[in-house]
Amino acid sequence: MTVLIIACGALAREVRAVSGQLPAFDLRCVPATLHNRPQEIVPAIETILDETSGRYDRTVLAFGDCGTGGGLDRLCEARRVDRLPGAHCYAFFAGLPDFDAMMEEELGTFFLTNHSHYYYQQPHSQIHWYLKTYSSFQLQHCDSLWYYY
Fold it and tell me: Do residues 73 and 110 make contact, with C-beta atoms less than 8 angstroms apart?
């Protein structure tokens, strides 16, 4: 069986890290910067699906909803593509039940991937200003995720 995983570029390292635990697959990524323009995520994935049409037995999206307002799920249904469960990639890293429990315990948690952490540390970022302004935030690192609380 030939498998294509289309992933957010912010997750490319994590997908590659588990590649030895999965059957062989090809990996295509869309730029992680599309999180800043979520309306462009579905069209970017559609482009990859069009380019690879008929070449794979199965295609899986390594994405959360990522601000598409259900657009990725509609695309998956229309194109018969699977998507990892959860509204956020953080949910499928932790597993949905554990993630839901953590969110109940830690309301207001703001998550960043390594890509986002880099981007938001740039001086032009509004979140960079926010985190500098409110010094009570503490940065914690857990595997490939950074989170502020």
Answer: no
pTM value?
Answer: 0.70
Pairing verdict, β 110-113 and 82-83: unpaired
Q: What is the mean pLDDT of the chain?
A: 76
Nearest by Cα to 64 from 47, 46, 48, 41: 41
In 3D, which of 85, 83, 88 has the Cα closest to residue 72? 83
Q: What are the residue ranges of helices labelled H in the chain?
A: 12-17, 41-52, 71-79, 89-94, 96-105, 114-120, 126-133
Nearest to 5 by CA among 101, 84, 86: 84
Distance separating the N- and C-terminal Cα atoms of the chain: 43
Q: For 116-148, write each residue's pLDDT tens digit.
A: 545 555 544 454 444 455 444 444 444 444 333
Strand partners of residue 58 = 3
The distance between the two most distant Cα atoms of the chain, rounded to a whole number of Å, is 52
